[in-house]
Amino acid sequence: ADLFDGIVMAEQRFHGEGYQEGLAEGSHAGMAEGRRHGALHGARISSEIGSYLGFALTWRCLLQKCIDEKTSKKMRALDSLIGMIQKFPYKDPTYDKLQEDLEKIRGKFKQVCSMLNIQVDFRMDAERSSLTF
């Protein structure tokens, strides 16, 4: 009876072993792919936010010499954008409002560009990102 049990149960045993091996291999491959995807996506976001910060700091320096009501509003908007960027949680990938805060920064950037009468086109594609004025 034991001989036949081994033969009859072999398919089930091999199925279980194959499942466990496949699960372990798939988990390993998924972790590696997830790391690559996360690093790429994080680099894109950092590049985008870095562009916004450089833009805002440059314009703040350019506008410091002018003191009038219109310039004052532009400076406040630039300071707000800079503050939002400085508060952005770069080091916390588990931050639950990351996408929401990123959208707020994008919106503020568009508002600042509108106030400065600058046409902006920010493109994100699979190979590179570009910010043109």
TrEMBL record:
InterPro entries cross-referenced by the UniProt entry: Essential_protein_Yae1_N (IPR019191), LTO1_adapter (IPR052436)
Chain ranges of the Essential protein Yae1 N-terminal domain: 18-56
Entry-linked PANTHER family: GEO13458P1 (PTHR28532), ORAL CANCER OVEREXPRESSED 1 (PTHR28532:SF1)
Family (UniProt): Belongs to the LTO1 family.
Name used for this protein in its record: ORAV1 protein
